[in-house]
Recover the amino acids of this structure.
């Protein structure tokens, strides 16, 4: 009889986890809101239960009796993963610390308590009378405390712009709160790691591209990054310190940070999960040879991650489609360089020219320019 693995989420990014689990011989049990996502079809068993219904999912998992539970690229899913896994005695991060990895204000507060370098920050409601931003140096970034995917983000240059930005952020926040942070200058990157029983392992640095101010929607990513070798060890050391401060013990992590022209380093935020946008599910595997998705599954079922390189490393790039011009450029690239195409997603053509955050992008394509 096959061992059973529970996966929280069924979208295109999560589907890479479902397919890998099936490849490894697990029977996949997938939970998600039923909306026609691809994972509904590829899962061995699909349950139309929202990923936020952790108690309901726990009761069903008591019947399933899985050997592990996991997800990739979703902060919301990690709350349910840790809750269910802890209640079933499976490998996870402590639920008591889940808040520090899913709420940006609590994350900043925890890092500051543990002497991890962090910019000035403040928690803001929709009531300007409660704001305490006198000590913050403008420009600042305002964003929801508890969302991801570039939702509700605004760069604010003075106090006159603050109220509109806070309303924009709290509208997207589950708890209707925003965080204001001093803006970190520099080029944007992320660090992809796997942790096992409290020990952290570095996998890759990712170069990130965005639309820039005011909303910083991610337009693409590239691995390996262009971070200078002499700077890399210092960055790893600081990130490992932050992971320990947040009590990330098991599973993937995705740390977003910036490095300015002088080499100054600053953490933007940390997720106790793989990076979305196919960073964890695909780019790490292509650029390093490490099977990151398998590592996530291994740790979830209580096994030490396997660092055997399963493919020959090569440069990996993902680009996202926003406009008709982007779509035409992709089609031309596919025609001229078919051997470099790794994967093209389904395209949500009704969103052409209407992108407001990462969730409303049209689609993406991944390619390997060194082939």
């Amino acid at each position: 009889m096959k061992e059973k693995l529970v996966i929280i989420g069924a979208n295109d990014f999560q589907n890479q986890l479902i397919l890998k689990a099936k490849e490894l011989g697990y029977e996949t049990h997938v939970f998600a809101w039923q909306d026609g996502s691809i994972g509904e079809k590829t899962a061995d068993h699909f349950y139309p239960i929202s990923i936020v219904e952790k108690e309901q999912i726990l009761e069903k998992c008591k019947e399933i009796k899985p050997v592990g539970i996991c997800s990739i690229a979703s902060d919301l899913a990690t709350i349910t993963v840790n809750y269910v896994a802890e209640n079933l005695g499976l490998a996870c991060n402590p639920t008591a610390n889940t808040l520090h990895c899913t709420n940006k204000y609590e994350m900043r507060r925890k890092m500051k308590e543990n002497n991890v370098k962090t910019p000035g920050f403040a928690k803001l409601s929709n009531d300007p009378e409660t704001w305490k931003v006198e000590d913050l140096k403008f420009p600042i970034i305002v964003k929801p405390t508890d969302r991801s995917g570039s939702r509700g983000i605004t760069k604010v240059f003075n106090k006159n712009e603050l109220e509109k930005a806070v309303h924009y952020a709290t509208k997207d926040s589950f708890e209707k709160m925003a965080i204001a942070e001093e803006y970190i200058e520099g080029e944007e990157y992320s660090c992809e790691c796997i942790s096992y029983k409290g020990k952290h392992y570095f996998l890759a640095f990712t170069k990130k591209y965005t639309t820039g101010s005011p909303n910083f929607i991610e337009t693409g990513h590239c691995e390996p990054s262009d971070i200078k070798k002499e700077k890399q060890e210092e960055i790893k050391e600081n990130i490992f310190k932050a992971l320990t401060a947040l009590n990330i013990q098991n599973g993937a992590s995705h740390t977003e940070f910036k490095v300015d022209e002088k080499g100054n380093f600053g953490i933007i935020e940390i997720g106790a999960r793989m990076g979305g946008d196919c960073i964890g599910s695909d780019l790490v595997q292509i650029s390093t040879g490490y099977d990151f998705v398998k590592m996530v599954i291994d740790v979830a079922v209580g096994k030490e991650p396997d660092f055997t390189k399963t493919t020959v490393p090569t440069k990996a790039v993902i680009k996202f489609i926003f406009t008709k011009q982007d779509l035409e450029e992709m089609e031309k690239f596919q025609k001229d360089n078919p051997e470099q195409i790794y994967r093209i997603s389904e395209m949500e053509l009704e969103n052409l020219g209407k992108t407001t955050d990462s969730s409303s992008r049209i689609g993406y394509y991944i390619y390997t320019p060194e082939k």
Remarks:
- The first strand starts at residue 4 and ends at 8.
- The two ends are 41 Å apart (CA to CA).
- The mean pLDDT is 93.
- The chain is about 30% helix and 25% strand.
